[in-house]
Specification:
The structure is a single chain. The chain is α+β, with helices and mostly antiparallel strands. The protein has a domain of 105 residues. The protein contains eight helices and 22 strands. The strands form four sheets. Strands 1, 2, 3, 4, 5, 6, 7, 13, 14, 15, 19, 20, 21 and 22 form a 14-stranded mixed sheet that branches. It has a three-stranded mixed sheet with strand order 9-12-11. Strand 16 and strand 17 form a beta hairpin.
Length: 435
Amino acid sequence: MAEQLSSDRGRASSIDKFSVISNKGGDINLSPAISELKYYESIREATVRMTIVYNDSGGSIKGKSVLEALPLVGTEKAQVKIKDNNDNNLDLTLYVTSVDPLLEDAKKTVVSLQLASKEHVRNQLVRINKRFDGKLSDHITEILTNESFIGTDKTLDIEETQNNYNFFGNNKKAFYTCTWLAKKGVPNTTSPGKTAGYFFYETSKGFHFKSIDKLIEQEAKKKLIFNETPDNKGSTIPQGYDGKVLELQSDNSINVQSKLESGTYSTRVVLFDPFNCVYQVIEKNVGQTESDLKLAGKELPQLNSEFDEAVNGFTRTTYMLKDKGSLPSGSTEEQIDKSKEANFDPENILNQSIMRYNQLFTLKKSITIPGDFSLNAGDAIFIDIPEAGGDKKNQKPNAEVGGLYIISDLCHYVTPDRCLTKLNLIRDSYGRKVN
């Protein structure tokens, strides 16, 4: 088991280094002047972000403020090293994307800097302007590593897809293209027509391209408990848990109309094949695929059976022209042979992807824990929440909403006297499933 985290460990961590390098040469370490640091990751964002607030009383460089002397104009490189109280380190290279003076008077200046990874800046400067053929997951790798595009040397965690997809970049941005491809991906561990959908995102460990089912089937990185019992600096954390949740907020809002309109439980796709003028209507509902899905809990939400025999068995309709013969790969002879093959398989991907993305956000919780830099967006954690009411001395875990969750968003919050980590957690199903 990982080292236990007590609430006492929410106290000060250390910002060992925050060196900003001027675009004209020269640098300064801002770490002693930082009053607030926030570091962000999300499975819905292509790159990591950071925001700091620092106080500048002037005279930092040759009698001038940092803002004037470097000067800070944007795209400056920053070397960042921070450490939590479990000696987990974040060692990052970021670039200034925004400079906002918050307060300026005769005595001091308070400045907010927003930073992002190098790839975030490069994404604004390059366009995807070539044709791609072959496996979809290979396109993600090429976009990230090709020096004509993102050209990153960071670690890549790319889950292979089973499907191919040919396309032109059409001068779109690199990260737009990656997220556009993500919803078309099918993991190679499933049968066609059962599930689809990937997430593309960056963490402190590199870039990730992971299917929804792969995120859910991973083992929990931490096991946490939320209760009203003081942990006495970790001495009273129950056996089997890595730490205690300091704060918990549950998003219990359920909007049936929104769920139905978004196609969470049933969808219809209307296809037209211009190659042979064939018209198809294909309906999918969650009951056809649930047994083949990887679930974080025991079962997907069960709707009232009174509505099973509704006139229409779908709540969202998508229209699409089938793509045949437009981008076959290979030599001229091979292209002729493949001219009747579909480039994309909407029957087995489109609706499945729509439903799976919506299902993943069925249960949402936000928790705050002592600062823990070992966690990343996309990791799984296990949390236990006591049942409401009953004997507080012998509380049982909530059998419906406790269990495995995926970290969708993460924020490390560091001040001179506090270090906290806030996590937004999501999952697709109800029921506490113990591995």
